[in-house]
Design brief:
alpha/beta; binds 4-nitrophenyl beta-D-glucopyranoside; TIM Barrel; three-stranded mixed sheet
Length: 458
């Protein structure tokens, strides 16, 4: 059966600055919280870091040529805030401006549309230590000033902006569980960080709309991540648990933007730990997205807490806040991240978003899978990855048939890169074929994606 996607549907692939650029202290770049986090023993698998990563900073010409060769039409990347503003505010680094100017120009020369994320987790260290990072009162103003700079320098050529990538990850993994930078552990900080992330997003959007949009004619939004939560059983308790889980995951950030306030169940359950959205914040945040950016990877069952015997996963360690027990079916295949492959969950999530938020234009800004691929005879046989994409694309096509306004899809990731706390051992990107003669340590194996493309004539 043929699956035709709508005319103008955007097909792309995505990366982020810290995961691919390397050159962590080159040409005037300031340090980010990830540069520092990686130096703390025990935080990142194998002691890896993004100090070199895919060395994209030094290889942008070569990389864009490879993208063109692949036939890529849209490329989502992020700008490193500390490369542009080494101390997070004030002085601007001209070499940072030059790098992104060159990248954008080469992409456009190659007929590839740039989609730019302003914040993919690499906060300038100066703002973390001097101002409390995302817990600081003034962080949203600093972010808006940085965004203003990006619109000013790059907005003549960039027509799609994503303010913040996955505020849930920043808040929960960075400020709740402490497994991502800046590594703080708290059951209240995530909700304050989340509040400031929303305000930062909204202030950047306001700057864009007030000063640039009418001239530059671009679109701006935020990207949230969410898994699907399927009720473990048909009981009202489990159905409510699944709904609650989705509200704590996605509606936390999407409700304020599309409805003007946090979900009721979060307000009731969190009490004073959840900041309130007053009239001023509401005016700022409500309506602050031209499109709905979604990163989606997996699905879990949700049950009323305690109702799922053997359920092993809490949600961010803050599961007591939502009182949901999560589990997976033993029948679902797992990727190397131990994330279950459940294509229909993606369709259900898209339909849930369409229904709750009045059918907004949606872009899937990330979807993909990690597998420990092994090259054999110069080629990679990766039927599991092929099956993953077949399954997910079939289901998102189904969602479109069912009326969801999905307008684009970006594969995570263009290249095998630094997978945060998991280091380099999880391979989301194009697998490399490592010629014996060029064998290197696992740490810089990400460089080999280039050889793969060449060796395999892709
Ligand atoms: C996303 N979780 O991260 C990011 O946007 C990418 O930078 C990353 O490489 C990719 O997904 C794969 O991990 C996530 O724990 C990290 O639910 C963690 C979670 C979700 C997304």
């Amino acid at each position: 059966m043929e699956h035709l996607f709508p005319k103008g549907f955007v097909w792309g692939s995505a990366t982020s600055a810290y995961q691919i650029e390397g050159a962590w202290n080159a040409d005037g770049k300031g340090p980010s919280i990830w540069d520092v986090f990686c130096m703390i023993p025990g935080k990142v698998h194998g002691g890896h870091s993004g100090a070199t990563a895919c060395d994209h900073y030094h290889r942008l010409e070569e990389d864009v040529a490879l993208m063109k060769q692949l036939g890529l039409k849209a490329y989502r990347f992020s700008i490193s805030w500390p490369r542009l503003m080494p101390a997070g505010s004030g002085a601007v680094n001209p070499q940072g401006i030059a790098f992104y100017n060159a990248l954008i120009d080469r992409l456009l020369d190659a007929g590839i549309e740039p989609w730019v994320t302003l914040y993919h987790w690499d906060l300038p260290v100066a703002l973390e230590f001097g101002n409390g990072g995302w817990l600081g009162e003034d962080i949203s103003d600093h972010f808006a000033a940085y965004a203003d700079l990006c619109f000013q320098y790059f907005g003549d050529r960039v027509k799609h902006w994503i303010t913040i990538n996955e505020p849930w990850v920043v808040a929960i993994l960075g400020y709740g569980l402490g497994v991502f930078a800046p590594g703080r552990v708290s059951n209240a900080a995530p909700y304050l960080a989340g509040h400031h992330l929303l305000k930062a997003h909204a202030k950047a959007v306001r700057v864009y709309r007030d000063k640039y949009q009418s001239v530059q004619n671009g679109r701006i939004g935020i990207t949230n991540n969410c898994d699907w939560r399927e009720p473990l059983s048909d009981t009202p308790e489990d159905r409510q648990a699944a709904e609650r889980a989705l509200e704590f995951f996605l509606a936390w950030f999407a409700d304020p933007i599309y409805k003007g306030d946090y979900p009721e169940c979060m307000r009731t359950r969190l009490g004073a730990r959840l900041p309130s959205i007053g009239a001023e914040d509401r005016a700022l945040i409500e309506g602050s997205s031209d499109f709905f950016g979604l990163n989606h990877y997996t699905t879990m069952y949700a049950a009323a807490s305690g109702a799922a015997p053997g359920s092993v996963y809490g949600n961010g360690g803050l599961s007591e806040d939502q009182d949901v027990a999560l589990s997976v079916s033993p029948e679902w295949p797992l990727t190397d991240m131990q994330w279950a492959v459940v294509p229909w969950g993606c369709r259900k999530l898209l339909e849930w978003i369409a229904q709750r938020y009045n059918n907004p234009p949606i872009y899937i800004t990330e979807n993909g899978c990690a597998y420990p691929d092994q090259p054999k005879n110069g080629r990679v046989h990766d039927p599991a990855r092929v099956a993953f994409f077949e399954g997910y694309l079939r289901e998102i096509h189904g969602a479109i048939q069912n009326g969801v306004d999905l307008r684009g899809y970006f594969i995570w990731s263009l290249m095998d890169n630094f997978e945060w706390a998991s280091g380099y051992d999880k391979q989301f990107g194009i697998t490399y074929v490592e010629p014996e003669s060029l064998r290197r340590t696992p740490k810089d194996s990400a460089l080999w994606y280039r050889e793969v493309i060449r060796n395999n004539g892709l």
